[in-house]
Amino acid sequence: MKYIKDQENLNDKIVLLRLDLNVPIKNGVITDETRINKILPIINFLIEKKSKILVISHVGRPKGKIINDLSLRPICENLEIKTAQKIRLVRENIYKLKKEDLFRNSKDRIIFLENIRFYEEEEKNDAIFSKNLAKLADIFVNDAFSCSHRAHASVSKITEFLPSFAGLQLETEISALKKVTTEIKKPITCIIGGSKISTKIGLIKNLIPKFDNIIIVGAMANNILNYKGYPIGKSLKEKNCETLIYDIFETAKNYSCLINYPEDVVVGKNMNDNAIIKEPNEVSNDDLILDIGPKTIKKIKNIIELSETILWNGPAGYFENPSFANGCNEITKKIIEQNEKNLIYSIAGGGDTIAVLNQMNAIDNFNFVSTAGGAFLEYLEGKNLPGIKALN
């Protein structure tokens, strides 16, 4: 893979820069700027190199139709403030654009093409569409790891028509993920949550041979408790996952990986209730399990203390209600404590996990926080990502 940071002569070159700026926008206002803040290094790098930056990104799922509410305009306005650069949003049809018309004004350093998913050819990975995109620039840079599990035109096919490089954020993401896949410092622990075991089974099975501990929390843990014969009341549970759970425990036995699940729980009668700590066998029919209990938290903290690497994906409880946020808060604090002593390498990923860290202002206290979502999980599952494969 070739990296943009190693390229010397970028002066006056038009760089077609694929970013993931798919941020939540409500009534024209961006409600989470994490992804925008993550791309500032590549923008600043290319400005320093005196490149002309032509940005491609998407918001939402317009499915090939122009939807004004999914325009990139709010993002351009946000980035103008962050970069102190005037940004022009080009809404003309890509097939009609000409390279020589883009940067006619010498003051233009950053131009955005409108939401690339307004074109149905994008998600079809269309070669003609990619070729038209390629005609607008001199080189291509993929700095959207979070889109790299998609075989889309501006991620995959485009590399066939332009010299192509990995961006700064993409390189950082892969370097971090290698520390939990191929360049591991042991003991290594994964804390994994979420609502469905079926969506994480590939990840768990791929990590078991490499990891010392898998800690299952959140709604996923309800399935484990139920499988082990404990009552879970009216808690969230996935149907027909007994075989998957059996496979997890059997695979773990073969590789001496310990599967950990809650030893006590925190329940409420509804999501807005107050917290009550219970042993697993004390859960009533009308209880909702909404967090892990103090014994479980203590055990997880001990495991973190003995680990050199931590991967965290998925919250421990219903953190949106402070009554059920203790598990997430205590895990976060313990990881930060170990980080500050340089005793651990920590990676967190997934939308809900990021929301937990944002709530605690802890994003910068982890070694790496991935905004990638699907790409993050697929990479950890050992899958080939089309956007990465295209750059190799």
Could you give a short description of this structure?
With 392 residues, this protein is an alpha/beta fold.
Molecular structure report:
This protein is α/β, with parallel strands linked by helices. It has two domains: 4-169, Phosphoglycerate kinase, N-terminal domain (Rossmann fold), CATH 3.40.50.1260; 179-380, 3-Layer(aba) Sandwich (Rossmann fold). Helix content is 33%, strand content 17%. The protein is built from 15 helices and 17 strands. It has a six-stranded parallel beta sheet with strand order 5-6-4-1-7-8. Strand 2 (25-26) and strand 3 (29-30) form a beta hairpin. Helix 11 (294-305) packs parallel to helix 12 (326-340). The longest helix is centred in the last third of the chain and has 15 residues, at 326-340. The chain is elongated, with a radius of gyration of 23 Å.
Oligomer: single chain
Name of the CATH superfamily of the largest domain: Phosphoglycerate kinase, N-terminal domain
Q: What count of helical segments does DSSP give?
A: 15
CATH architecture of the largest domain: 3-Layer(aba) Sandwich
Gross geometry: elongated
Radius of gyration: 23 Å
Give the rounded overall mean pLDDT: 95
